[in-house]
Design brief:
- The structure is a single chain.
- This protein is of the alpha+beta class.
- Helices cover 35% and strands 21% of the residues.
- It is built from eleven helices and 14 strands.
- A hairpin with a 2-residue loop joins strand 7 and strand 8.
- The chain is elongated and about 75 Å long.
Length: 360
């Protein structure tokens, strides 16, 4: 008899499930608009037309951080192996080495799944759903047909959305007001200060030490070459809408390594040697990832502290790679305080396929 009392993995029940659903719903405000549709409360909406992008952001984006506090460690780590593999195969471009790594993680997940859940018991044979077995064939099919992004549900959902928009005859494309084209797909966008203003405090110290400027005109937004529009604290603080989305956290290269930062504002500086304007961003950089969490999660949970104005840096806008979502990490006993974890888009180069380019 397969008693439910032996299901030590069945933790998302009762009030725990209700509170978990509220946590997922509260995460919506931390997702940039270009992340498509954020997941709704699964406790209320998971059976009400949950979209493919909601499932992805919920399970493979929020999952490593949100399930960590509710799943026993062995089940959480098994889940993280699945996330690691899935995040790899969903890329638009993938190397042979990455395919082999993903196949290894899929295989480990399936083998551990059978030991943890199915346990080779006849009364649990129905736990082995076809989708579990399919994981063993995904990487082999990638070698034959190409990366997973091309065969997901996302392009189809987007195509249906585009058809709906074409039926709206009143739709008028927006035209940005007085942008500044930086070339190579990057564009500075308003809002912008009407005149140069003096900086104060830590911002003044960071900017003057980097470019020796006491006063400047702040810009609020930057269109990235991948089609995303990165905003800033300067632009988003001008809006008080309760449902506004946080679109100011970015992935960057800093001192030769990947880092994550919150943009305070953008600005232009005249290059006297070449007579042109160079674009910079003042950012507050998140700390390094918690090494134990990163290792335990098989590099699916990048959790880091945020220290605000204590870690301000000036960077060229050319080192900004993409927008990311920074989510507050639910804590366990013994965790450091004020940790945020990274949720990246399912495949940044899928924007052309899906059509999710931010409005200017």
């Amino acid at each position: 008899m397969d008693s439910k009392l032996t299901w030590d993995w069945a933790t998302l029940t009762g009030n725990t499930w209700i509170q978990h659903g509220k946590l997922v719903a509260a995460a919506a405000k931390h997702f940039p608009a270009s992340f498509h549709r954020p997941p709704r409360n699964p406790a209320e909406k998971i059976s009400s037309g949950y979209k493919a992008t909601e499932w992805y952001l919920y399970v493979f984006g929020l999952g490593p951080g949100f399930f960590r506090t509710v799943l026993p460690r062995q089940y959480w780590q098994n889940f993280c192996k699945l996330v690691h593999a899935f995040q790899g195969i969903i890329q638009r471009c993938i190397t042979g080495k990455q395919v082999r790594e993903c196949h290894s993680f899929f295989t480990q997940f399936v083998e551990e799944y059978e030991l943890l859940y199915y346990q080779h018991r006849m009364d649990r044979i129905h736990y082995c759903r076809p989708c579990i077995h399919t994981l063993l064939h995904i990487c082999l099919e990638i070698i034959r047909t190409g990366p997973g992004t091309y065969i997901t549900q996302f392009p189809l959902e987007r195509a249906i959305g585009d058809l709906g928009k074409k039926l709206d005859k009143l739709s008028i494309p927006s035209i940005p007001r007085l942008p500044f084209d930086l070339g190579q797909g990057s564009i500075m966008l308003r809002p912008r200060d009407h005149y140069a203003k003096n900086l104060q405090g830590a911002q003044k110290t960071a900017v003057t030490s980097a470019v020796n400027f006491l006063a400047l005109r702040k810009w609020g937004r930057l269109r990235l070459p991948n089609g995303q529009v990165a905003r800033s604290v300067y632009s988003e603080s001008r809006h008080t809408a309760p449902n506004k989305r946080n679109t100011r956290n970015v992935k960057i290269t800093f001192e030769g390594e990947i880092a994550f930062a919150k943009v305070q504002f953008y600005f232009l500086v005249k290059n006297d040697a070449e007579g042109k304007l160079d674009a910079y961003a003042l950012v507050s950089i998140y700390g390094p990832p918690d090494a134990d969490m990163l290792e335990d999660s098989y590099h699916t949970l990048w959790a880091c502290a945020y220290s605000g104005d204590d870690n301000l840096e000036v960077i060229p806008v050319s080192v900004i790679i993409s927008l990311v979502s920074m989510q507050p990490l639910p804590s366990k006993v013994g965790d450091p305080e004020n940790l945020w974890f990274v949720v990246e888009k399912l495949g940044l180069d899928d924007i052309e396929i899906n059509g999710y380019v931010d409005k200017l």
